[in-house]
Q: What sequence folds into this?
C-alpha cells in the first residue's frame, strides 16, 4: 500500500514536467513581500526534468567525524550538499528548496549558517527556504541538518 501511495504522489508531483520539452525555473520575490537577500520567496518549475531530493545532509565527514561548532558543521554541510548534487547530476543552480533544521536555535548565533546559505547559491538562483529550530537531531552531536530539493532539466 505504501509503495502505491508513493507512486501516486510521485506521478502527481512530476506530472507538470511531462508537458513541455525543457525546464524553466523562475525565482523571484514578488512585489508586496519582503525582498530577502539569501533566498527567494517564490520558485516555479515548468517543463521536463528530474527531481533530486537530498534528505538530512549534515556536517559530518565520510568517516563520521563531526566538527564541534555550528560554523564548522555548516561549512561541511554545504560541501556535502555540493558533492551529493554533483553525484546526482545537479548543480547549485538547480536547487529550488531548502529546509534547514538548527538545534537550540533560540540560544545560539545562527548567522554563520545563514551566511553559508547566502554564499552557496549564485545570484539569481536563490531557492525558497525555511529555517526550523529543533531540540535535537538523530545524531546528538549535530547542530544542523538540511533537506534539499533540486530540479534538473532533461538534455
A:
Amino acid at each position: 500500500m505504501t509503495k502505491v501511495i508513493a507512486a501516486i504522489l510521485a506521478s502527481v508531483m512530476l506530472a507538470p514536467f511531462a508537458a513541455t520539452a525543457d525546464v524553466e525555473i523562475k525565482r523571484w520575490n514578488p512585489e508586496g513581500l519582503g525582498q530577502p537577500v539569501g533566498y527567494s520567496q517564490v520558485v516555479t518549475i515548468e517543463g521536463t526534468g528530474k527531481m533530486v531530493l537530498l534528505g538530512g545532509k549534515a556536517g559530518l565527514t565520510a568517516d563520521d567525524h563531526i566538527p564541534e561548532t555550528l560554523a564548522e558543521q555548516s561549512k561541511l554541510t554545504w560541501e556535502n550538499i555540493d558533492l551529493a548534487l554533483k553525484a546526482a547530476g545537479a548543480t547549485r543552480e538547480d536547487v529550488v528548496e531548502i529546509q534547514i533544521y538548527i538545534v537550540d536555535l533560540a540560544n545560539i548565533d545562527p548567522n554563520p549558517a545563514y551566511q553559508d546559505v547566502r554564499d552557496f547559491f549564485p545570484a539569481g538562483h536563490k531557492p525558497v527556504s525555511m529555517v526550523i529550530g529543533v531540540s535535537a537531531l538523530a545524531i546528538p552531536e549535530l547542530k544542523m541538518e538540511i533537506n534539499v530539493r533540486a530540479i534538473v532539466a532533461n538534455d
Summary: DSSP finds three helices and six strands in the chain.
